[in-house]
Write a structure and sequence with these properties.
The chain has three helices and 24 strands. With 376 residues, it is mainly β. It folds into two domains: 2-204, Jelly Rolls (Sandwich); 212-375, Exo-inulinase, domain 1 (Jelly Rolls). Strand 3 and strand 4 form a beta hairpin. The N and C termini lie far apart (62 Å).
Amino acid sequence: MRSDMLTRRHLFALAATPLLAQDESGFTSLFDGRSLNGWEVKEGPESGFAVDDGSILVTEAANSPTWLATTKTYENFDLRVDFFVRGWIDSGIYLRAPEHGPAIDCGLCIKIFHKEENPPKPESMGSIFPHVAPKLTNVKSKGEWNSMRILLNGSRLQVWTNGAMVQDVNLNEHPDLKYRLTSGRIGLQSLSYPIRFRNLRIKELPGATQWQSLYSAPADFEKNWFVEEGKAKWLTLGPIFRTDFNGHLASKTKYKDFVFETYIRARKHSNGGIFFRSEGSGSKPHYEIQIHDVEGAVYPTGSLYGIQRAKYPRLVPEEWFLFQLFVKGPHCVIRINGENVVDYNKLDRLEAGHMLLQAHQSASWIEYKQIRIREI
């Protein structure tokens, strides 16, 4: 037992991979080797990850969809990490992952797998899982440390494993990736296999995406919104904005082509909506997206009301989900938790209009946070 422990400690103390010899100027450590400060466990038990021998260890207590997330969000960056593989290992590194919602669908996942495969598959080691196969698989799996470098700048994603480039992709050119979040958490995926990570370090690159925050704090209510009509309750609860009863709240600015994002949490069988390109209240020209979590409804949550029924998103009442709306010319895409629920290209109202939040029923509260928009 004592001999095994010494051997294991010797293995994990071996010199780092050649990536450490590269230029490290401007990098910040994400892991201090002693604690999980700066990280938090998402969607699983805190015992799912532990610090052992100067590395982050995935324990058997964790299972999918448990993951370890940075508490800070990142947009563009150069990320470097070492990972230890012995035998069967299945894991991944999340990029631009959400605060709520499935990281693998809302953000990006670089797969870590123990097997070398030729030809590579969309689920192979180094893939943008499960969509883009790597150029090659390059992994050492017999009790060895591996290195990975991830360079994500705007829509360009490049990945190297053990010094070999395995990905060089323009995300905007891939139908399954072009609507992913443009900023978010970095995460380590657990599938309960005992993978280890160390030497996690990052260099942030200049951000390119210019967002306008419509609500992140109470001061944003007066700054960005006005009550258009009705007697709804509009409550500013710190970073959370809550609606109830009946009425419409309008943005002071009009928008034509844009991306709109927010996190939403709603009461079971809630009834409300988000309007865009609106001239004002519900009686004036507008487009409406339903927030109505009733599977049997003609227009459930995510539907383009009166035009196209959404693919029903299976949401848990009173749990946060990611809502995204992409509008350009006659085309709109509505995404919930990383899934396209509406893709419609025949909008005929093309003029700029207000964004509206609709409260439509008493005791049918809806909450929002991190409401933001960017014009395109």
